[in-house]
Amino acid sequence: MSHSALTTRRPDGRALRVGLTGGIGSGKSTVAGLLAEHGATIVVADDVARDVVEPGSQGLAAVVAEFGEGILTPEGSLDRSALGAIVFADELRRARLEEILLPLIAAEAWARIDAVPAGQVAVYDVPLLVEGQMQDMFDLVVVVEADLEARIGRLAERGLEPEQAMARIASQATDAERRAVADVIIANSGSLEDLARAVARMWQERLAE
């Protein structure tokens, strides 16, 4: 198999670590799914984030202590809508939530990444890679981008009004901040077929053995 000169060298004794990030609505999760089809093991930060605030967890107790019992459902689990309404409207409150949860999420995520066998590709699908200054933890950082109109349209399909979508986009790192840490940028304003071709090309050039 021929390789580009840019092929990322596989490290000895552990999996090759890829940080995959992009703003909300960029299609990052779709790229993760395509990478899985090529053989990567995917660790999804959002899944880890849900797991660390399960009922009875240290994470949920800490969040309730900070934000109050109004963020709980009647069954005692986290009411994500109630918490989101607080943190997406207040930068300081959002920063406090991240201060509580990011260390817990990171510890669990890295345990899962470290469990991927040596010689394989472990992809960490993480929206807050830039905010968490995680770029140096990876062998390769991949950023997914899409134009604003496409992102707002995708978020509308998730039930977000345009002003809600814009607030969430504004709460994250900018495109320029993500580009500054990227080894690879994948554009995703076109068709799924275009995206699949771009991911396949990156896999061949940067990740294939």
Automatic annotation (TrEMBL):
Its main location: cytoplasm. Pfam families: CoaE (PF01121). It catalyses: 3'-dephospho-CoA + ATP = ADP + CoA + H(+). One of its GO terms (molecular function) is ATP binding. The keyword Zinc-finger does not apply. The keyword Protein biosynthesis does not apply. NCBIfam families: dephospho-CoA kinase, PRK03333.1. Its EC number is 2.7.1.24. Keywords: ATP-binding, Coenzyme A biosynthesis, Cytoplasm, Kinase, Nucleotide-binding, Transferase. InterPro entries: Depp_CoAkinase, P-loop_NTPase. The lineage of its organism: Bacteria, Bacillati, Actinomycetota, Actinomycetes, Actinomycetales. The gene is coaE. It is found in: Cytoplasm. It comes from the Bacteria. One of its GO terms (biological process) is coenzyme A biosynthetic process. Catalyzes the phosphorylation of the 3'-hydroxyl group of dephosphocoenzyme A to form coenzyme A. ATP binds at G25, S26, G27, K28, S29, T30. Belongs to the CoaE family. It comes from Actinomyces bowdenii. HAMAP family: Dephospho_CoA_kinase. This is Dephospho-CoA kinase. GO terms for cellular component: cytoplasm.
